[in-house]
Amino acid sequence: MQKFILKKPDKEVTTIRIPKDVLDIIDQKSTACGISRNEFINQCIMYALENMEDRQ
Q1: Which whole-number Å values give the CA distances from 31 to 23, 27, 35, 48, 50, in the listed order?
Q2: Which residues contact 18 (CB under 8 A, 6 or more apart)?
Q3: What is the 3-state composition of the chain as percent helix, strand, coil, each rounded to the nearest 5?
Q4: How is residue 21 annotated by DSSP?
Q5: Residue 41: CB partners within 8 Å, gap ≥ 6?
Q6: Number of C-beta neighbours around residue 30 at 10 A
Q7: What span, in angstroms and rounded, lies between the C-alpha atoms of 3 and 13?
């Protein structure tokens, strides 16, 4: 059996302002998916970044 090795994720704490009505939707969706608000927002951001058109 392999040994369990702890790894610290490379993340940084930041603060953003989100309208209350949007935060309510985020909370509903993340709860329904069984993931944290933070993880939900991160996945949404990554999806948007990977699927946006580059404008230069």
Answers
A1: 12, 6, 6, 20, 24
A2: 26
A3: 50, 0, 50
A4: H
A5: 26
A6: 18
A7: 29
Residue 46 main-chain phi, psi, to 5 deg: -65, -40
Residue 46 is which amino acid?
M
Overall pTM > 0.70? yes
Distance spanning both ends of the chain, measured CA to CA: 50
Asked if 26 and 15 count as a contact pair (C-beta separation under 8 A), the reply is no
Dump pLDDT digits (tens) for 1-56: 889 888 877 889 999 999 999 999 999 999 999 999 999 999 999 999 999 998 76
Please compute, for residue 24, the number of CA atoms within 13 A of its CA located in the half-sphere on the CB side.
3
What is the distance between the alpha carbons of residues 18 and 44, in angstroms, rounded to a whole number?
14
| Contact between 49 and 40 (Cβ < 8 Å) | no
